[in-house]
Specification:
elongated; 3 helices; three-stranded mixed beta sheet; alpha+beta; YefM-like fold
Length: about 80
């Protein structure tokens, strides 16, 4: 990944964006220290949540929230 200093990024932003649109990525640095990454924008595709969509397909045990004493002791470091 190519490192570009801030001055170069400011003066050549249009050229950098053209290259980014083609898939390249750049690290923008301030005095040699990386501060940002310039990469192609990726739109995240999300679907709206549909409550009840899995109704009847999942079964939750009656005791799902009961504490397992053995696991609790392991977390507390009482058992190895």
């Amino acid at each position: 990944m190519e490192i570009v200093n801030i001055h170069q990024a400011k003066t050549q932003l249009s050229k950098l964006l053209t290259r980014v649109a083609l898939g390249e990525e750049f690290v923008i640095a301030n005095r040699g220290v990386p501060v940002a990454k310039l990469s192609p924008y990726q739109k995240t595709i999300t679907t709206p949540r549909t409550p009840g969509r899995l109704a009847g397909q999942i079964e939750i045990a009656e005791n799902f929230d009961e504490v397992d004493e053995h696991i609790l002791r392991l977390f507390e470091g009482e058992e190895a």
